[in-house]
Structure formats: C-alpha cells, structure tokens
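[Meeting: bench + compute handoff]

Bench side (C.D.) handed over the final construct sequence. Compute side (W.E.) agreed to return the predicted structure before the next meeting so the bench team could plan truncations. Sequence as handed over:
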Amino acid sequence: MFHSAKRVLLPAARAAAGVARIHGSAAAPAEAASLAEAYKRVAPQLDVPSTPTTYLKERPAVSATIPEKLTLNLSLPHAMPFSAKQVDSVIIPATSGQMGVLPGHVASIAELKPGLLTVIEGTTETKLFVSSGFAFVHPNSVLDVAAVDAVPLDQIDGEEVKKGLAAANAKVASATTDLEKAEAQISVDVHSALSAALGL
C-alpha cells in the first residue's frame, strides 16, 4: 500500500512543489484538486491530509492607492496603548537609526532600540519612551509595534534618570565578569537613551 501511494502521490507532490507561489497565497485550485484526486484513488478510506499551506491566511489586500492614514497597533505585555489608531506618521527608534513610517511605506521589520517613539496625528505629537521590541510595517499601511515597555515622556523623572545613569556607569567600572559588564552596559544604554529623550 505504501509503495503504491508513494508511486502515485510523489509525482503530484513534485509537480505542485515546482510551481512557485507567494507565501500566504492560496494554492492553485488545479494543484490541490489533482493531489486530492490522486490521494483518494490510493487511499479512498482516508481523509486528504492537511499541509502547512492549508493553514496559511490570505495576505491582506493592498490598495492600489496610498491611504491617507497609517493604522497603528502598539502592543505591550500588559496593555495596548494604540489599537487600530489612525495616525499620520510614526517615528521609530530602530537599531539602524530613526525610521519614519508614513502610509504606503514599504513592508519591513525593524528591531527597536531604547529611544523615543513619536506618534504624529495632525499637529499633535505623542512621545513614548520604548525600551526594546520590534516594528512590523505591512504593505497595507498597518504598523504593528510590539514593545517590552512604553512610557509617556512626561511621566519620566529627569533627576531619577541622572541618578540611574551615574549608578549604571559606576557598575560598568566595577564589573568583574562578562555577565556583570553586559548587564551594566544595558543599563547605561537605556539610561543614556532616556537622558537624550529628555534633553538632559
């Protein structure tokens, strides 16, 4: 039975694999139908098995015109400050540098570094300090930001930031192991970014 199934199904699977498809697009109906027919001939008592492509969702439709607004989703482990919020643009603190995202931006993924995330709605700017995370720009003008933490800039105490930076620098100087040095350097990086965001 196995050899018979292999003989019939393998050519159909190879033919289907030879056709390139965009990830997330539906399989061509003819391919799926021919595989199902071949499977039913060999093993009529069994259901046609699901494949990984069975579970893929269709890509969201991309408009032919650029929308006027960007849809922002900002997710934190404990909250969602922005959910499907229509904004004009967002400036992200990416590891490669500041990244401005407007409607119609090319699809991309960016790692966030500690810094200022600015959400622009008309003449209003909302500034949040993010510690780290990722930003996903989708081709349908949706921006998903998954951050470890995001704090409004006006809720950050500048004096505490100065004290924290001094303590972090002292830890770097006194660190003896690689782990201690790495932890202290992370603290310095975060406090330095906080200090820069506050203009200290």
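W.E. noted at the follow-up: Strands lie at 70-75, 82-87, 89-94, 97-101, 108-112, 115-121, 124-130, 133-137, 142-147, 150-152. C.D. will use this when planning the next construct.
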